[in-house]
Amino acid sequence: MIVSAEIDGMIHGAQSLKEKRAVLRRVQSRIQNEFNVSVSEIDHQNLWQRTKIGVVTISYDYKKAEQTIQKVLHFIDSFPGFERMDTFLERL
């Protein structure tokens, strides 16, 4: 089973693309290391406070994949400086 999430977010305090990308690198690397999922910025690359990231996981069990994505979303909510605005989940 494949479960993905598209997450629209705001990076508060970023005053440039360089600052935004530094925050995104920290978020992405911590998500990948903690949850063993694929994560990438998929939209708003040239806006310095907005972002859209995609997170994907694959598992033999739909429930396990869904739980992993929910844990990732909870982690993102706890990350300082990053505000999750909209989230779209897709199950394949």
UniProtKB/TrEMBL annotation:
Q: What domain of life does the UniProt record list for this protein's source?
A: Bacteria
Protein name in the entry: YlxP-like protein
Organism per entry? Salimicrobium jeotgali
